[in-house]
Write a structure and sequence with these properties.
816 residues; alpha/beta; Rossmann fold; 2 domains; nine-stranded mixed sheet; six-stranded parallel sheet; globular; binds ligand 26Q
Length: 816
């Protein structure tokens, strides 16, 4: 038999030879002296080689054909570690394992070495990554556009119970997955002023100019030849610009400008950050949007297509308002640079762009003060005004005399300091607007974008979020994946609805036994990790009750904590009480400037210290704060969960996607009627979901009619006792001052109705405990959760975007 080619062969021998070659020619070493990192790099380059032929074929097919592509613009792509995922999608995990074993290396250890590309905050960034996986798997021509942050989301350490932020140096040891394309680069202007020439043409005379350089990462679909591109922009200084044109004689001034240019793609901003880095954040947004749109127009030119066909060739999706400056920048490119008439440019812009909203929280809606906007992007502000003038003229004609409505619809908020409303801008400039879960989309139409929904009801859609079963099941839960393969066949990986066929086995005791065995091994793996990271022993037989997500008051980690404290008190009162062993696991980062969230982390750790060290509890309760929750750690966490905490105040969590990852891995949900929980409950059945709490309309009514948190404390002795214990410093070494902001906030304002939902939450947790005692019943419910998770595949979500919003179709890639 002829041996396989070394750079493309998918069998053990070729892989083994490729790794040895790479060790020598890329890492400049040999097996005896190679470090684990050398082995990792040698393998990663070998895997990348195997993706390249597919990548090139995909690009070539796209360039040659008259097909439309989806362009996903997002300030965040939380792609997670790449090696394991690429092995899975190529279908060579077993071969790679064997090849590395023959070289004396453990594949899992190498996978664990990979740095996390933390280019996102949380749900929104991870959603973008799941969507790229599904687009490639569904063979849809697509490109993701974003920023190549040098520093991603900070790493979280816990010191004395407090969060400490540590810079994330993910690029320090090199990134084998990216390919820099110095020739794919664009200029982006900032500052200065505009001038109008004799032909009424506007020229933007910028004060500064930055270059964006493309860094490409291949995104391979699962067992297909489609390999799409994630194109991230790095900012660089434009040497000649500063030195020759503007800073003549001022060498140090020029170098300073250069430093500023290069800071544009330096760091990812955390959400929930009050007021810091505003100017740089807007500059980042404009920078990556301008590079991306220029690139899209360049690709159109390369295909020989006229500019008028842009909407037939590209669907540009705006992932929240972060890229919504695209509405204005596309108009600028079409009108100022391509010299199109305004009306035609506007028609093209609207038909090309679509906008996804991810939040209803008023404080999270992006606006930019006019002085900053004008100073940084003078030409764009002029275009915003022109868009607004034409838009409001139409509104006035339709609603004569309705000034209040005009003020609400305006792109400019005129109350107080004038600000540009980015959600209004995105809505006006798009042909489609969608929310991310049914409830969220309905509320969006009724609240934040109500006037727009009245104006253009046909523009509004819902696309419920989804998650990729490749990363969140095949890769991270191989034991369960194997059991599913044996039970329903392998088709579920790309057709998640096939998990339905598990239902027939849900009550079979032999199948239940195997199901529990898988969960048990996953819990042991997480327990080992907890021992290594936190130094705490937890019992894999206990109920693993998990809440992992960003720390935020609306997500109500403190409600969960009040339950822990309540159980703690009950056990301290009566050690004989029959309480099922539970291990409460929390994880998540707090924005560095969000003091209340950081205090919540401190309190979780304080409760953990008290609970874990109280001998009277007989080890029945354990509390863990798992540090540095990220995609890599998530691989161990979701598969080990028995209970998924989805307890946000109804109406506040747009969708949630962690809820879907837990469900897919057989966790039961305790949750409110919020975000996608509503649909999860519909799919799994009310009898398999632990529901509690006020519904969104009730929350809304209560907040409007006046909510008195103290009423709930007066009515509930256990709640009072729990709050008193916290207030007395029981979980803060006697420090009452430390916890005061949290207690005061709950007692005197409680904007997220923690106290109002407490009693129902505790009662619901009692139903959870009762269900847990009957392991047959629990296992059946667990199986049904996985069986009915089909809807929450990102493949389903992407099909909906393709059919309803983008009008983009798959394109088969033949390997050359
Ligand atoms: C904004 C301005 C300045 C700096 C940062 C930001 C910023 C960055 C990230 C604001 C928001 C985000 C991220 C938001 C997010 O993750 N939203 C979540 O999106 C998920 C996917 O749709 C939903 O499932 C979650 O419900 C939603 O909270």
């Amino acid at each position: 038999m002829t041996p396989e080619p070394i750079r493309t062969g998918l069998k053990v021998d070729a892989l083994r030879q490729a790794v040895l070659d790479n060790l020598a020619s890329l890492q400049a070493c040999y097996p005896d002296i190679a470090t684990p990192h050398d082995w990792y790099m040698a393998l990663a380059y070998g895997v990348r080689d195997r993706m390249l032929a597919r990548w090139v074929s995909t690009v070539r097919s796209f360039a040659a054909r008259d097909v439309k592509a989806a362009c996903y613009l997002s300030a965040e792509f939380l792609i997670g570690p790449q090696l394991g995922n690429n092995l899975v999608n190529l279908g060579i995990e077993a071969a790679a394992r064997e090849a590395m074993r023959s070289l004396g290396q453990d594949l899992d250890a190498l996978i664990a070495l990979e740095a996390e590309p933390g280019l996102g905050n949380g749900g929104l960034g991870r959603l973008a990554a799941c969507y790229l996986d599904s687009l490639a798997t569904l063979e849809v021509p697509a490109i993701g556009y974003g920023i190549r942050y040098e520093f991603g989301i900070f790493d979280q350490e816990i010191h004395d119970g407090w969060q400490v932020e540590v810079t994330d140096k993910w690029l320090q040891k090199g990134n084998p997955w990216e390919i820099v394309r110095p020739e794919v680069s664009f200029y982006v202007n900032f500052g200065g002023h505009t001038e109008t020439d004799a032909d009424a043409r506007v020229h933007w005379i910028p004060a500064n100019r930055v270059k964006g350089v493309a860094y490409d990462t291949p995104v391979l679909g699962y067992r297909v030849s489609t390999c799409n591109t994630l194109r991230l922009w790095k900012s660089e200084a434009v040497e000649s610009f500063d030195l020759k044109d503007f800073n003549v004689g001022d060498y140090y001034g020029a170098v300073h400008e250069k430093v500023i240019s290069e800071t544009l793609s330096k760091v990812l901003y955390p959400n929930d950050e009050p007021e810091i880095g505003k100017r740089l954040r807007l500059a980042q947004q404009y920078f990556f949007v301008s590079c991306s749109l220029q690139d899209i127009l360049r690709l159109l030119d390369m295909k020989g297509e006229p500019i008028a066909r842009l909407p037939e060739m590209a669907a540009v999706q705006l992932n929240d308002t972060h890229p919504s400056i695209a509405v204005v920048e596309l108009m600028r490119l079409l009108v100022d640079e391509r010299r199109l008439p305004w009306e035609q440019a506007w028609d093209i812009t609207q038909r090309t762009l679509a906008y996804t909203n991810h939040t209803l929280l008023p404080e999270a809606l992006e606006t930019w003060g006019l002085p900053l906007f004008r100073d940084l992007l003078p030409r764009l502000l002029e275009i915003v005004y022109e868009i607004n003038r034409r838009f409001l003229d139409k509104v006035r004609r339709r609603y004569p005399g309705d000034d209040a409505r005009v003020a609400r619809l305006s792109l400019i908020d005129e109350a107080g300091e004038k600000r540009v409303r980015m959600a209004n801008l995105a809505t006006v400039g798009s042909h489609a607007v969608n929310g991310v879960a049914a409830l969220h989309s309905a509320l969006l139409r009724q609240t934040v974008l109500r006037d727009f929904a009245e104006l253009w009801p046909e523009r509004f859609h819902n696309v419920t979020n989804g998650v990729t079963p490749r990363r969140f099941l095949v890769l991270s839960n191989p034991g369960l994946a194997q059991l599913l393969n044996e039970t329903v066949g392998e088709g579920w990986v790309t057709d998640l609805s096939r998990l339905k066929n598990l239902e027939a086995h849900a009550s079979e005791s032999s199948f239940q036994e195997r199901w529990r065995r898988v969960k048990r091994l996953n819990k042991e793996a997480l327990a080992n990790l907890i021992r290594a990271r936190v130094g705490l022993a937890v019992d894999p037989d206990a109920l693993f009750d998990i809440q992992v997500k960003r720390i935020h008051e609306y997500k109500r980690q403190h409600l969960n904590l009040l339950h822990v404290i309540t159980l703690y008190q009950r056990l301290r009162r009566n050690a004989q009480l029959d309480v099922a062993a539970r291990c409460f696991i929390f994880g998540g980062k707090a924005a560095p400037g969000y003091h209340m969230a950081k205090l919540m982390i401190r309190l979780i750790n304080g409760v953990a210290e008290a609970v874990n060290n109280d001998a009277a509890l007989g080890g029945r309760l354990k509390v863990v704060f798992f540090p540095d929750f990220n995609v890599k750690n998530a691989h161990y966490i979701y598969p080990a969960a028995d209970l998924s905490e989805q307890i946000s105040t109804a109406g506040k969590e747009a969708s949630g996607t962690g809820n879907m990852k837990f469900m897919l891995n057989g966790a039961l949900t305790i949750g409110t009627l919020d975000g996608a929980n509503v649909e999860i409950r519909e799919e799994v059945g009310a009898e398999n979901f632990f529901l509690f709490g006020m519904a969104a309309d009730h929350v809304d009514r209560m907040m409007r009619e006046g909510y008195r948190p103290s009423d709930y404390v007066d009515a509930n002795a256990e709640l009072r006792e729990a709050l008193d214990l916290v207030a007395a410093g029981h979980f803060s070494h006697g420090d009452r001052e430390m916890v005061r902001p949290l207690i005061d906030n709950l007692l005197h304002s409680d904007p997220f109705l923690v106290l109002a939902d407490y009693a129902e939450y505790i009662a619901c947790q009692e139903r959870v405990s009762a269900a847990w005692k009957d392991q047959g019943r629990w296992t059946r419910m667990s199986i049904l959760n996985t069986a009915r998770a089909g809807k929450f595949s990102s493949d389903r979500a992407i099909r909906e975007y393709c059919d309803r919003i983008w009008k983009v179709r798959p394109m088969r890639i033949a390997l050359d």
